Amino acid sequence: MKSLIALFSLFSSLAAAETTYWIDEVGQRQLTIVENEFRRADLSFRWTYEPGMMPGWAGYGQRSGNTILFAITPVDEAQDREPFFFAKKSDSRIEITFRSEKPDQPDPGIRGIFQQLTPDKRLQLAKKEFEAAETRLALALQVTTRDGRHDDKVIVSDWRMKWPTLRQRWLSLSYKPPGIKPEDDADFWIRLAQATAIGIGFNSQRVDPKNKGEWPGDYDDGFGGRITIRPRKEGGLRINLNCTRGLDGNELNGTDVAGNIPGSAVKKKGELLLAEAVLDITGGPEGAPPKQIRVKLQRRGGALWVETTYLHPTNRRGWLDGIYRWFPEPEPGQ
Fold first, then answer.
1. Half-sphere exposure (CA, 13 Å, Cβ side) for 162?
2. Residue 145 near residue 155 (C-beta atoms within 8 A)
3. Smallest Cα–Cα separation from 183: which of 191, 194, 172?
4. CA–CA dist 305, 317 (Å, integer)
5. Which of 306, 274, 313, 275 is nearest to 292 (CA)?
6. 101 near 79, Cβ under 8 Å?
7. Cα dihedral across residues 202, 205, 209, 210: positive or negative
8. Dihedrals φ, ψ of 125, to 5°?
9. In whole angstroms, what separates CA 31 from the centre of its chain?
10. Are 247 and 305 in contact (CB under 8 A)?
């Protein structure tokens, strides 16, 4: 009975939560405040001077009248929450100040005056942000095609073709429809812009000149997927694949895979390197039989192409498929 009462209280507080949005257009900062019926307030700040920027500083506190006393949301128990801030509301604006003026207080850049942001204006800004991100992605791909080395150019055409599916996968993890058409929800466009910004980052990088098109190295797909490949005796490979997908790192969509690929399963066709093996998915319940996944690898240019098939579909977790950019192995001691 107590657990039912606690659960009912939780749902009641969520139902009573109120979300308001604020903007500092000069500083290109946006503020979201979520308050519940118990006067708890969660504040998150996002900078928008680049389209698709991820959430930045987050804090929480308590409201008293028109003032919220708050401090940073700690990432671990040892983190100090100082300094504390006031969010003072008057008319249709909020002013963020230090609670007390002390020398050498760390300022995360959240102080200042924010004006209330209407839903229509927020939706308009979110659409413009996505359009700006799309323009920058197209430019990044164009620059790579025009100015990149052969290692870079090999990646572009196939990545462009895979991009709609990759973006949709990311969106399915980071965006939960609130009961209205996604096109009418500002958060939908912000998530699209954020996914596009990650794509811009991936395609704005250049393959390390040390690349010789060989297997050993570290690989990254830009969306939380990482792979390491190390050589073994007789031409075999030791491979580790892992991913943590979703906005802010959704560990529920994570997968860890590790194993060895024998030399007999490693092939070469001109510049194209091929390998295939069935590997174990690690991290399951203790004593449970291992779950397995078939991994097919293609190494060419400055990237690694990965295709996977879960041999136990009911245990499907994160996705590992995609294009991973090559990086050299860390030097000893790094």
1. 17
2. no
3. 191
4. 19
5. 313
6. no
7. negative
8. -65, -40
9. 20
10. no
Measured at the CA of 322, the angle between CA 215 and CA 318, to 5 degrees, comes to: 110
pLDDT digits (tens, 9 = 90+) for 48-103: 999 999 989 999 999 999 999 999 999 888 888 999 999 999 989 999 999 998 88
Amino acid identity, position 207: V
The answer for residues whose C-beta is within 8 angstroms of residue 79's C-beta and 6 or more apart is 72
Closest CA to 37 of 14, 7, 58, 60: 14
Give start and end residues of each alpha helix (H) in the chain.
2-16, 119-147, 150-174, 186-204
- Cα 74 to chain centroid distance, Å, stands at 19
Record the tokens describing residue 274, joined without a space.
Answer: 């091929």
- Amino acid identity for residue 23 in this structure: I
Q: CA 170, CA 181: separation in Å to the nearest integer?
A: 18
pTM comes to 0.87
